[in-house]
Design brief:
The chain is mainly α. 58% of the residues lie in helices and 0% in strands. It folds into 2 domains: 110 residues, no CATH class; 78 residues. The two termini are 27 Å apart.
């Protein structure tokens, strides 16, 4: 995997040498230009340290039940096997790496054997052989899905009608909302500028997940926020001052900023 050759120290040094760390180079830029500068700089650094590699692979129809949990355990097993090979022979009972590999191998085999999907299918349809074989054919990619099983527009519309009706029924006896009048002369004239400390605290509180539109994985953003805090402080303050969200951020709802 490319991240195994990634160097956090080299990435941080690259950020410190980039315009993102030099306030004079981004102080006069507007919001859209700031975001574009960040994305271009980060993308260039990552492409230099871990170039993008396109890999094509075919998913076997018979392995559709192989879920993300199985895939994660398999990747950990492969890594453990390489570590054990590098340390000693896999048959060496005194090697901690070999023992760890064997334990993970048993865990992976056990996970495959106790597939809940297959067990549930067999238990619920064992008295209906025809239905059981149709389920297996569908799982293995054989045959075609009958048109009657497709969701049409009316069923899709009915689902949302039922959902809204359920919410209204659940809140029918709720108390009426209460509103407080704004005192006379109260005005919001300006926002308090965002500080670098607040930026770092907010970033560290983020969950470790990201979307496809994020230029940085969240774990890497947390490790480099000390360098990027000044840049993002300028970006947030510009947005609050002008009352404008940069267009690239407003278009991608999965962005972290």
């Amino acid at each position: 995997m490319p991240w195994r050759s990634f160097s956090l120290d080299a990435f941080l040094l690259g950020l410190q040498a980039s315009p993102l760390y030099n306030e004079q180079q981004f102080q006069q830029l507007d919001g859209d230009t700031l975001v574009q500068l960040h994305d271009d700089t980060v993308t260039a650094l990552l492409n230099e340290l871990i170039p993008v590699r396109h890999v094509s692979y075919r998913v076997q129809a018979s392995s559709l039940w192989f879920n993300d949990k199985c895939r994660t355990v398999k990747q950990a097993l492969q890594l453990s096997e390489r570590v054990a090979h590098h340390a000693s022979l896999l048959s060496d009972a005194s090697s901690a790496a070999a023992v760890s590999y064997r334990c993970q191998r048993h865990q992976y085999a056990s996970l495959l054997r106790q597939s809940a999907f297959w067990s549930k299918r067999i238990d619920t349809q064992q008295l209906q052989p025809c239905q059981l074989w149709r389920s297996f054919d569908k799982l293995l990619g054989r045959g075609k899905t009958p048109l009657s099983s497709a969701t049409d527009a009316s069923a899709f519309h009915q689902f949302f009608d039922d959902k809204v009706a359920g919410v209204r029924a659940a809140t029918a006896h709720a108390d009426e909302p209460r509103f407080t009048s704004v005192p006379a002369g109260c005005k919001l004239r300006l926002f308090t500028p965002v500080t670098q400390t607040e930026i770092m605290e907010m970033v560290q509180a983020l969950p470790n997940k990201q979307g496809l539109s994020d230029p940085l994985p969240t774990w890497l953003l947390k490790n480099s926020i000390d360098v990027l805090a000044l840049f993002w402080c300028r970006s947030f303050c510009w947005s609050l001052k002008h009352g404008v969200v940069p267009s690239s951020m407003s278009q991608h709802t999965l962005r972290r900023f």
